[in-house]
Amino acid sequence: MQAVLTPAEQAAEQKRKADRRQVTLLIGPPTAWLLLFFMLPLAVILVISFLTRGTYGDIRPVFNPGNYGQLLDVNVFIVFANSVWLAVLTTVACLLVGYPMAYFIARQPQPWRNVCVLLVIIPFWTNFLVRTYAIMLLIRDEGVINNLLLSLRLITTPITMLYTPFAVFVGEFYGFLPFMILPLYVAIEKFDFSLLEAAHDAGANIARAFMRIMVPLTMPGIVAGSILVFIPAIGAFVTPIVLGGAKVLLIGNLIDREYSSARNWPLASAKSISLMVLVSIATAIYFRTTTEQDRL
Q: Which of 143, 159, 190, 202 has a CA-to-CA distance to 219 between 20 and 30 Å?
């Protein structure tokens, strides 16, 4: 026998149904977008990674797990290692430079704070490729930096910076620095600086108060900025091509060559999936480490 609901219970049930409809309307379109334009292409790449390359670059529906076996090649491992090292170096450099800059912006009066944030965002208004070519004009043998050093007689011959790992590092550092500054600024702006004064009153010096109070409380900004820099840095291929030339080969360039020049889509898909797994593992470890530090 079905229970008879009271008017109050009926109203509560109608409210719950209305809330469920609102939640469905809110999360439905984003979920469909992610499934259609992210999960489905990712599933296609995963399937292709287990297929076989045809004679003329076509994809043959023949199961071939050996695509992942080729990732154990020493040369591929070196490219992966170089990509990870450069991404870590870029992330650390952006953190060391971005934290003081974000702190400076957060401590400014409100009108100047908005101006500083605008100056950080302005580079996004210019195409990334154009900004990369601008770096080339600065560091090439006949560029601004070498001409300035030569005019000051600090050097006698131009310093070779272009088409080196250093040039790629400079390009990635410049390109991804705003991704570190903005999350750090948001975290530092919310920080209660009276806690540092209390720590000083308790006998803590500047370094101890910073490491024990400010760093843990701004850790969400550090984590967000590090992830936003590390992920695009490890898969970057425009910067190595423009600033590194043929002398610097990273995993992004290797995948691009497999897709375009070699027309080996199964192997390129296997490398892409492996890179995604590597980034996911590194991100999970980073989250786990920071969570354990927060608990301590």
A: 202
